[in-house]
């Protein structure tokens, strides 16, 4: 098992897999990025809108339509699912190539194919929850844990959450829903987090965690929380 950085265009990801699968992962990232970029050239609003977007009739049947569908479910723009889309596509390509244990971390939006448990750190900026993580157990297929943040990284968030985390079997939905959850958190009061989490329960989401300062809210089924050494540089610079 090796750790490898993938930097292709705006995709800056950390890949954990057997070394022989790295070229396959890079080819998969190039392929899915080309498909998305090709569609954007015909439908520029797909890139810029912050709300649900109906794709053109000539949109390909794969990732572009899935991005739009996932985003529409939670009321955000389709590019809110792009990191999850790239991550899932890469992991599925490696699964098809014979890989059995893969972690693809696309800037905090993570797709997994596991044959043994892994610990994933939670990085929530100044929050007291930093230094903890999830002990993630294997599932029968690819799945995702995705995070949106107003204080960490470069992704757009309209809220104030240090981390809005979503777990789902559908990695694209996890990514879009994390953005939507983060957008809804506009206060760091405990009562506010509870109201948001109670009122936001999209179909297909297994569990959610919201972190805002020292306040934490959870809903649904999440992996076991554990202590973890969180090395942010491993995400941002590989």
Could you walk me through the main structural features you see in this protein, from its secondary elements to its overall organization?
- The chain is α+β, with helices and mostly antiparallel strands and 238 residues long.
- It has one domain (2-236): Roll (T-fold).
- 34% of the residues lie in helices and 26% in strands.
- It has 7 helices and 11 strands.
- The chain has helices at residues 22-42, 45-48, 63-74, 82-97, 171-184, 190-199, 232-236, and strands at residues 2-8, 11-17, 102-106, 109-113, 118-121, 132-136, 143-148, 163-168, 205-212, 215-220, 224-227.
- Strands 1-2-3-4-7-8-9-10 form an 8-stranded antiparallel β-sheet.
- Helix 1 (22-42) crosses helix 4 and helix 3 packs parallel to helix 5.
- The model has no long low-confidence stretch (mean pLDDT 91).
List the helices and strands and how they pair.
Blueprint: E1 2-8, E2 11-17, H1 22-42, H2 45-48, H3 63-74, H4 82-97, E3 102-106, E4 109-113, E5 118-121, E6 132-136, E7 143-148, E8 163-168, H5 171-184, H6 190-199, E9 205-212, E10 215-220, E11 224-227, H7 232-236
Antiparallel strand pairs: 1-2, 2-3, 3-4, 4-7, 5-6, 6-11, 7-8, 8-9, 9-10
Helix pairs in contact: 1-4, 3-5, 4-5
């Amino acid at each position: 098992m090796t750790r490898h950085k993938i930097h292709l265009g705006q995709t800056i990801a950390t890949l954990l897999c057997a070394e022989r699968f790295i070229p396959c992962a890079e080819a998969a990232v190039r392929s899915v990025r080309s498909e998305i970029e090709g569609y954007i050239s015909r439908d520029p609003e797909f890139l810029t809108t912050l709300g649900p977007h109906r794709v053109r009739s000539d949109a390909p049947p794969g990732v572009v339509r899935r991005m739009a569908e996932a985003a529409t479910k939670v009321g955000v723009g389709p590019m809110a699912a792009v990191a999850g889309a790239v991550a899932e596509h890469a992991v599925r390509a490696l699964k098809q190539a014979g890989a059995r244990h893969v972690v693809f971390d696309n800037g905090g939006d993570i797709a997994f194919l596991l044959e043994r448990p892994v610990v994933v750190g939670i990085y929530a900026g100044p929050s007291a929850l930093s230094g903890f993580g999830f002990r993630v157990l294997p599932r029968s297929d690819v799945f995702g844990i995705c995070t949106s943040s107003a204080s960490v990284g470069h992704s757009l968030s309209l809220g104030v959450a240090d981390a809005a985390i979503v777990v789902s079997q559908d990695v694209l939905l996890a990514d879009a829903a994390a953005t939507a959850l983060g957008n809804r958190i506009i206060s760091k009061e405990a009562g506010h987090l509870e109201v948001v989490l109670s009122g936001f329960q999209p179909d297909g989401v297994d569990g959610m965690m919201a972190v805002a300062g020292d306040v934490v809210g959870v809903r649904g089924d999440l992996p076991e929380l554990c202590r973890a050494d969180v090395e942010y540089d491993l995400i941002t610079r590989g």
